User: What shape does this take?
Amino acid sequence: MRHWSEEDPWADDDPGLLVRPYTVTGGRTSSTRPGIELISLISTVRPATRDQRLQPEQNRLLALCRIPTALVEVAARLDLPVAVVRVLLDDLLDHRLVFVSAPSAAGSPDPRFLQAVIDGIRSI
Assistant: This one.
């Protein structure tokens, strides 16, 4: 049995400020826009005005998305669950501060190529 006095390799000396996801989203648990996918690109359209009171996470999101960035990457960089980032995006979209572009099928690989890769892996 382990005691608290033993050193735990998973313990963090400085866990930082712990903010629950429901606090960040104001209690909302899901996005009102179902079309935002993990690889959808988010782009900042304009900075927030002083009248628009944003949360620190939303300000960080705006800064991250000056260059179009995938939703999944934004979530990773903000260290927040994707569902939380989707809810934060709802507010930013309502304020017209960001633009979300759907993933393009133009860059998707040829199905024959994918099948050749799968066949090659199976033969190993």
Q: What stands out?
A: The first strand starts at residue 41 and ends at 44. Helices lie at 21-24, 56-64, 71-78, 82-94, 111-122. The beta strands are 41-44, 69-70, 98-101.
